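Standup notes, structure subgroup. Blocker cleared on the zinc ion input:
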Amino acid sequence: MTGSITKPKCMGTKVNGDPCSSIILGESGYCIAHDPETGGPDRMREMGRKGLEAQKAVRIGFTFAELIPLKTYEDAKERLDVISRAAMSGLLDDKACNAAIRAISEWVKTESEAATKHVVETLAKEIDRVKRQIGAA
Ligand SMILES: [Zn+2]
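Run returned:
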Protein backbone atom coordinates (compact mmCIF):
# COMPACT_ATOMS: atom_id res chain seq x y z
CA MET A 1 0.00 0.00 0.00
CA THR A 2 2.92 2.28 0.61
CA GLY A 3 4.06 3.31 -2.78
CA SER A 4 7.27 5.25 -2.58
CA ILE A 5 7.15 8.51 -4.39
CA THR A 6 10.29 8.68 -6.43
CA LYS A 7 11.46 12.20 -6.64
CA PRO A 8 13.47 13.03 -9.71
CA LYS A 9 17.18 12.80 -9.08
CA CYS A 10 20.14 14.49 -10.63
CA MET A 11 21.21 12.96 -13.90
CA GLY A 12 24.85 13.49 -13.07
CA THR A 13 27.46 10.96 -11.98
CA LYS A 14 29.67 11.23 -8.93
CA VAL A 15 33.46 11.04 -9.16
CA ASN A 16 33.32 7.43 -7.95
CA GLY A 17 30.95 6.49 -10.76
CA ASP A 18 27.77 6.25 -8.67
CA PRO A 19 24.72 8.12 -9.90
CA CYS A 20 24.24 11.44 -8.13
CA SER A 21 21.48 11.20 -5.53
CA SER A 22 20.76 14.88 -5.19
CA ILE A 23 17.10 15.83 -5.47
CA ILE A 24 17.74 19.53 -5.38
CA LEU A 25 17.70 20.16 -9.06
CA GLY A 26 17.87 23.12 -11.32
CA GLU A 27 15.88 23.56 -14.49
CA SER A 28 18.50 21.53 -16.33
CA GLY A 29 17.60 18.41 -14.36
CA TYR A 30 21.03 18.43 -12.71
CA CYS A 31 22.06 19.43 -9.21
CA ILE A 32 24.26 22.48 -8.76
CA ALA A 33 27.38 20.31 -8.84
CA HIS A 34 26.54 18.59 -12.11
CA ASP A 35 24.71 21.34 -13.94
CA PRO A 36 26.58 21.70 -17.23
CA GLU A 37 25.90 25.44 -17.16
CA THR A 38 26.81 26.39 -13.60
CA GLY A 39 28.46 23.30 -12.17
CA GLY A 40 30.98 20.80 -13.40
CA PRO A 41 34.23 19.55 -11.88
CA ASP A 42 36.06 22.85 -12.37
CA ARG A 43 33.37 24.78 -10.57
CA MET A 44 33.26 22.19 -7.76
CA ARG A 45 37.02 22.35 -7.38
CA GLU A 46 36.75 26.12 -7.23
CA MET A 47 34.03 25.89 -4.56
CA GLY A 48 36.11 23.35 -2.64
CA ARG A 49 39.13 25.63 -2.74
CA LYS A 50 37.09 28.59 -1.52
CA GLY A 51 35.63 26.44 1.24
CA LEU A 52 39.12 25.41 2.36
CA GLU A 53 40.30 29.00 2.37
CA ALA A 54 37.26 30.02 4.40
CA GLN A 55 37.99 27.20 6.87
CA LYS A 56 41.61 28.30 7.18
CA ALA A 57 40.48 31.86 7.82
CA VAL A 58 38.05 30.66 10.46
CA ARG A 59 40.68 28.48 12.11
CA ILE A 60 43.21 31.27 12.44
CA GLY A 61 40.75 34.04 13.17
CA PHE A 62 39.02 34.53 16.47
CA THR A 63 35.59 35.85 17.16
CA PHE A 64 35.61 38.87 19.44
CA ALA A 65 34.05 36.79 22.24
CA GLU A 66 36.82 34.18 21.96
CA LEU A 67 39.53 36.79 22.37
CA ILE A 68 39.59 36.72 26.12
CA PRO A 69 41.50 39.58 27.70
CA LEU A 70 45.14 38.85 28.42
CA LYS A 71 45.62 38.13 32.11
CA THR A 72 49.12 36.75 32.41
CA TYR A 73 52.46 37.06 30.62
CA GLU A 74 51.89 33.44 29.64
CA ASP A 75 48.70 34.50 27.77
CA ALA A 76 50.66 37.19 25.97
CA LYS A 77 53.41 34.74 25.05
CA GLU A 78 50.86 32.25 23.72
CA ARG A 79 49.13 34.90 21.65
CA LEU A 80 52.44 36.10 20.22
CA ASP A 81 53.22 32.53 19.26
CA VAL A 82 49.90 32.21 17.41
CA ILE A 83 50.56 35.49 15.62
CA SER A 84 54.07 34.49 14.60
CA ARG A 85 52.80 31.19 13.21
CA ALA A 86 49.97 32.96 11.41
CA ALA A 87 52.45 35.45 9.94
CA MET A 88 54.91 32.80 8.79
CA SER A 89 52.20 30.71 7.16
CA GLY A 90 50.79 33.76 5.42
CA LEU A 91 47.41 33.50 7.13
CA LEU A 92 47.68 36.97 8.63
CA ASP A 93 48.94 39.92 6.65
CA ASP A 94 51.66 42.27 7.93
CA LYS A 95 49.21 44.98 8.87
CA ALA A 96 47.10 42.66 11.05
CA CYS A 97 50.24 41.13 12.62
CA ASN A 98 51.74 44.51 13.44
CA ALA A 99 48.50 45.74 14.95
CA ALA A 100 48.21 42.62 17.11
CA ILE A 101 51.86 42.77 18.20
CA ARG A 102 51.51 46.47 19.09
CA ALA A 103 48.42 45.71 21.18
CA ILE A 104 50.17 42.85 23.01
CA SER A 105 53.31 44.86 23.66
CA GLU A 106 51.20 47.74 25.02
CA TRP A 107 49.49 45.26 27.32
CA VAL A 108 52.87 43.89 28.51
CA LYS A 109 54.15 47.43 29.11
CA THR A 110 51.08 48.47 31.10
CA GLU A 111 51.09 45.18 32.99
CA SER A 112 54.77 45.41 33.92
CA GLU A 113 54.29 49.01 35.06
CA ALA A 114 51.40 47.88 37.25
CA ALA A 115 53.47 44.97 38.55
CA THR A 116 56.41 47.26 39.32
CA LYS A 117 54.07 49.70 41.05
CA HIS A 118 52.67 46.84 43.11
CA VAL A 119 56.16 45.68 44.14
CA VAL A 120 57.17 49.23 45.07
CA GLU A 121 53.98 49.74 47.11
CA THR A 122 54.43 46.39 48.86
CA LEU A 123 58.02 47.26 49.70
CA ALA A 124 57.00 50.70 50.97
CA LYS A 125 54.36 49.11 53.24
CA GLU A 126 56.92 46.58 54.46
CA ILE A 127 59.40 49.37 55.21
CA ASP A 128 56.68 51.28 57.12
CA ARG A 129 55.85 48.13 59.08
CA VAL A 130 59.49 47.54 60.00
CA LYS A 131 59.91 51.21 60.90
CA ARG A 132 56.89 51.02 63.21
CA GLN A 133 58.25 47.82 64.77
CA ILE A 134 61.61 49.44 65.39
CA GLY A 135 59.92 52.57 66.72
CA ALA A 136 57.69 50.52 69.03
CA ALA A 137 60.57 48.38 70.28
ZN1 LIG B 1 24.30 15.83 -9.15
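Discussed briefly. Residues 10, 12, 20, 22, 30-31, 33-34 surround zinc ion (CB under 6 Å).
Next: hand off to the docking folks.
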